[in-house]
Fold Pyridoxal phosphate homeostasis protein.
Amino acid sequence: MTGPGDGSSTPSGAGDGRAGDDRARELRGRLDAVRERIASAAGAAGRDEPRLIVVTKYFPASDLRILVDLGVTDVGENRDQEASGKAAELEGLLTWHFIGQLQTNKARSVVRYAHSVHSVDRASLVTALGKAVAADRHERAAGGSGTPAELECFLQFDLDRAAVAGGRGGALPADAVALAETLAGTPGLRLAGVMAVAPLGAPPAAAFEQLRRISETVRTVDAAATSISAGMSGDLEEAVAAGTTHLRIGSDVLGPRPGVG
Ligand SMILES: *Cc1c(COP(=O)(O)O)cnc(C)c1O
């Protein structure tokens, strides 16, 4: 068995004190570097700094505790089973953003812990989320706890020109108005804005410019839907220059994802 200070090596992520300290130092260094990049990109673009969502998928709850100590307030997850477990472990310490493709049958679970869903890409999911929020409120009222705020929803668009609808996730830009109207008309959901992942193999700046135009279209439906969720580790500077309001940064804060490389 290993214990604090016994000098034996432990796999990363184990509860060992020394390994934990090393991991805390590593995360602090990475997070500081990302925060500096964001500040300098925002300065260069003359924009306000966007909200930083640290994408913690595949990383253990012990890493999230370190992030809380480092002042991180928002985390992103893309699988319900993993996210719901971590949210239960870290109850009340973080704001949870669901950023992955979402099956309608997972909506009930996701609304229990998520503050926002960034991956709303079809009308059937809007309907499922609306029903899930209503059921969640009913449950909370019956249990004597207060009504939570509305679920913040981002419409995710597929900016890949070669994409077939329903392929990698994300609605077609041509469906923006119809989807925005559906979402804006669903009680319990708040249309926050738009979201996209820049396509591989193309300059991200052009994709983010396209997303900005889609955002303008969505705002013709709801003028308050001003949020733009864009920018990952590899393209955060381009996203900030294009006016993103929510950055989703994973590997540059946490390191390479386990088992993903
Ligand atoms: C994993 C993921 C991210 C984070 O990507 P990194 O390149 O690790 O920063 C952002 N957005 C979505 C939708 C993701 O699935």
Observations:
- The chain has one domain: 17-254.
- The pocket of pyridoxal-5'-phosphate is lined by residues 55, 57, 78, 99-100, 197, 232-234, 248-252 (CB under 6 Å).
- The longest strand covers residues 114-120.
- Strands lie at 51-55, 74-77, 95-98, 114-120, 151-156, 189-195, 227-229, 246-249.
